[in-house]
């Protein structure tokens, strides 16, 4: 009897935690694991607290930049260094990282002091998403991923990472 109670508690805990874990990972219970997020239209989420500060953007990057441009950098390095290892699934995951960051920017308008930076990064993310569309087309077509496409993506990302933080912008 005691074993059944423990299993019931574990099941209840798992049911309570699953939606929170899915939300934290950016997934939804009905989402298809192989589906690629759309990059053609900006996200329509709004920021109920008003414009986001540059500090909010910095926090979005995660510790050491591991969940923003840093994560996208790792994806593009893998794409450049091991293009034959990239599958449609991996390309979908990678463009999902780009879409997630672009969606955050779309849902968090910038304060005046970093509006230009915000617009530059958002445009750069659109360029990266377009590059991933070409990567995906090559994969789907059974051809090699074009080196000029991945080189352009790496160069565009380097430009984004080299952007100077706006001065006197909290």
Structure report:
The protein is mainly alpha-helical and 170 residues long. It is 62% helix and 0% strand. The protein is built from 6 helices and no strands. The longest helix is centred in the last third of the chain and has 27 residues. The N terminus is likely disordered.
SSE blueprint and pairings:
Elements: H1 2-25, H2 54-60, H3 69-81, H4 88-107, H5 115-141, H6 147-161
Describe this structure in a few short sentences.
The longest helix has 27 residues.
What is the share of helical residues? Answer: 55-70%
The beta-strand count equals 0
Strand content: under 5%
Alpha carbon gap, first and last residue: 58 Å
Q: What Rg is obtained from the alpha carbons, in whole angstroms? A: 19 Å
Annotation field: number of helices: 6
How would you sum up the major sheet? none
> Which structural class do you get from the secondary structure elements?
mainly alpha
**How many domains?**
2
Low-confidence stretches: 3-46
Average pLDDT, rounded to a whole number, is 80
Oligomer: single chain
Q: What overall geometry do the principal axes of the alpha carbons give? A: elongated
What series of H and E elements makes up the topology?
A: HHHHHH
């Amino acid at each position: 009897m005691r074993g059944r109670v423990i299993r019931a508690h574990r099941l209840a805990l798992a049911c309570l935690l699953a939606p929170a874990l899915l939300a934290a990972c950016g997934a939804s219970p009905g989402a298809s694991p192989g589906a690629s997020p759309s990059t053609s239209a900006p996200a329509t989420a709004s920021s109920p607290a008003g414009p986001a500060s540059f500090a909010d953007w910095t926090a979005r990057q995660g510790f050491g930049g591991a969940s923003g441009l840093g994560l996208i950098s790792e994806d593009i390095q893998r794409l450049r260094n091991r293009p034959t290892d990239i599958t449609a699934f991996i390309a979908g995951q990678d463009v999902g990282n780009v879409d997630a960051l672009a969606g955050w920017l779309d849902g968090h308008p910038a304060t005046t002091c970093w509006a230009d930076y915000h617009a530059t990064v958002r445009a750069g993310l659109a360029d990266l998403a377009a590059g991933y569309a070409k990567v995906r087309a090559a994969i789907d077509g059974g051809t090699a991923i074009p080196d000029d496409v991945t080189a352009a993506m790496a160069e565009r990302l380097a430009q984004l990472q080299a952007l100077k933080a706006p001065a006197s912008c909290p």
